[in-house]
Amino acid sequence: MRSLVLIAALTLVSPMLAFAQSGDEAAVLKVEEELRVAELANDIDTLDRISHPNYYAVNQNGNARDKAQFLELWKTFKVQSIVKENLRVKITDDTAVVTGDMTEHNAGIDRMLFTRVYRRERNRWLLLASMQARRSSPMAETIRAQSTTRGGLTLEEVRVGSSCVVVISRPGSNDYSVTPCSTR
After folding, report:
1. For residue range 95-109, what is the model confidence (pLDDT) as tens digits?
2. What torsion, rounded to 10 degrees, do the Cα atoms 137, 140, 142, 148 define?
3. 160: Cβ–Cβ under 8 A, 6 or more apart, which residues?
4. Residue 155 and residue 182: Cα distance in Å, rounded?
5. Nearest C-alpha neighbor of 128 from the set 183, 17, 52
6. Statement to judge: residues 87 and 163 lie in one domain
7. For 17-33, b where at least 16 C-beta lie within 10 A, e where not — what string?
8. 74 and 48 Cβ atoms separated by less than 8 Å
């Protein structure tokens, strides 16, 4: 009988725990969105309210800032748009980690990966730390040499950054192989 009561209690509590978890994730994502909107509007009051007193960040250029420097930056720094994608939230106790892709449009376009750490204090999530890293665009860096055909095979040299491969394919077929470029 005791195990039956335990099973019934777990059956009732488990959905509530899952809901609480998704509620926490939603609350963290809400603050993440508040951050995005506040940065676009240079809303220092909101940035101050949602950031932890011990906030610390490193941006895509390697510049480190504490909370006071972060707030000072956003008094004058203008961004035309911020688009966030592929957001993932991991929560452990009172700490949440949000990771994702972000594109900022300003004088140019910055594509970045980011990680933010939030801390729950007094039932609200505060931004504790942030790190951004510039994401290179492989398509922008790809250089394709002229294709050559030998013995019915097409050879194409493809360079991405300092990496190089040769793609060997047979026209009209889905067969291909990839090998490192020769060091000649």
Report:
1. 999 999 999 988 788
2. 150
3. 138, 141, 142
4. 13
5. 52
6. no
7. eeeeeeebbebbbebbe
8. no
pLDDT by residue (tens digit) across 72-99?
999 999 999 999 999 999 999 999 999 9
> Do 75 and 146 fall into the same domain?
no
* Residue-level pLDDT at 12: 42
Token pair of 64, please?
A: 């480190």
Provide the domain count of the chain: 2
- Whether residue 158 is found in the same domain as residue 103: no
Q: Among residues 124, 122, 130, which one has the least CA distance to residue 36?
A: 130
pLDDT beneath 50: ranges in the chain: 2-21, 138-146, 184
pTM of the model: 0.64
In this structure, are 83 and 173 located in the same domain? no
